[in-house]
Amino acid sequence: MAAKSDGAAAAAGPGPEGAVGGARGSAGGLGDAVAAAGGPGVTGAGGSGPRYELRDCCWVLCALLVFFSDGATDLWLAASYYLQGQRTYFGLTLLFVLLPSLVVQLLSFRWFVYDYTEPAGAPGPAVSTKDSGAGGPSISTKDSATAFRTKEDSSELGPRRVPSSASAYRRRCCRLCVWLLQTLVHILQLGQVWRYLRTMYLGLQSRWRGERLRRHFYWRMLFESADVSMLRLLETFLRSAPQLVLQLSLLVHRGGRPDLLPALSTSASLVSLAWTLASYQKVLRDSRDDKRPLSYKGAVAQVLWHLFTIAARSLAFALFASVYKLYFGIFIVAHWCIMTFWVIQGETDFCMSKWEEIIYNMVVGIIYIFCWFNVKEGRSRRRMTLYYCIVLLENAALTGFWYSSRNFSTDFHSLILVCVVASSFALGIFFMCVYYCLLHPNGPMLGPQAPGCICPEAPEPCGPPADAVTSPPRSLPRTTGAERDGASVGGERAGTPTPPVFQVRPGLPPTPVARTLRTEGPVIRIDLPRKKYPAWDAHFIDRRLRKTILALEYSSPVTPRLQYRSVGTSQELLEYETTV
User: Which domain holds residue 344?
Assistant: First the structure.
């Protein structure tokens, strides 16, 4: 979710060692003042950086196929209910399609408006380029894409000439056409389709262009992928999840042989939920330079994991709701409140404003009704184990209450449904174990794991974090003159070094770098602490920050690296000693 920034500044210049690196590739911008300067750095995309591959394009095409199949089957089913005269089912099915789509389209159009316009009366952030301390031109981030002439295979940049009246008229016409096109696209509820197509376009452009523009288009592609993954996550759990429970409840309530169309709609909603969750996690990991990217094998394992666990969960909901409608509503509301409170207690830091953080926590509470979703830094094994134990107990209780209302002696069909719930949940847990034991980006869970964070090697070990204050004790042992002179004290031989009173314990040695990191070139410093994983970095959710970074990246001959405010290392600056 996007929000305005808090006015923190972003600056580009030589960075201190040990600073946190920026995104693997992104473009955008905020900051009251931004400067770019050549200097050494410690983090970055390194060398040529990642490349957009054919399988990335195929993944987006599959996402489009899932999106259209989910929407088309729901609308087809709603039309079927209307023709059959079942107006209640028609209204509910259509409501779960249109209302989430309208919410997502409004949010998407709001992002477009913010990206494509500059607030009236608010000057753009100052952007300057420096080369080893030499002063350079200053430009505005407004229309930064046209502020410089960029030769594809040359690093020379020059200020653009003043446009003539004819070119200014053509430019205004082009902007008007873009506004009309985007308005029409979002009215037709195709905002996400446009963003998917734009993601593919930017990715392919990053393959076809030269090295200079290749990185620029790859950064913009990552931003677009992040936007569409957030929108899809919001829409699927507002549309596909309730649609799945509704259609399953109708299928169970009718009994007998299920109709083809409701079965297709249910399957499409289930695949959409599983695919969106896996795609969201993949884009989130790909966007962070301090995390190892998720492979496509791991993404497929996540799809199967969520597919079977959500199927078991939804079927248990449908069985219970087909008999106890009122109690099912009470159960859902109670579960959502508990999960939302659990998320809020974790003190998440995903959004840039408090009200958006609350909305995000409420959406995550909806997600927790159906499946696991990691929102907290650190190892999640215990929290995930606790969650799935609760889900297992709930599924067993809901299915058991439904089965107790059936005829045990003659209703063999009910026993089959109970077995389907149990086996589907077991398969989901199996694929979850496959993912964590074999396909996790950090390595096998049972074997030697690679580090989750990708940090550059440092010649010296790191100390405790900067916010860990080391305080001297209230009283210190006195140091005699003999001790200072190296004389024997207390049976110790003269010249024996006396251990220091205070000693900074070295931290764990830094882990090897998974890939070659670039250590020179311009660095964009962002005066904000980096959000902890699994949250998005600030330049992915703050759209003003995107604009400024994009302006700097486009105007710089060398693609700069992002560097957030470094926590630093705690070092002893004073030696505490008392003397007579």
Answer: 295-441
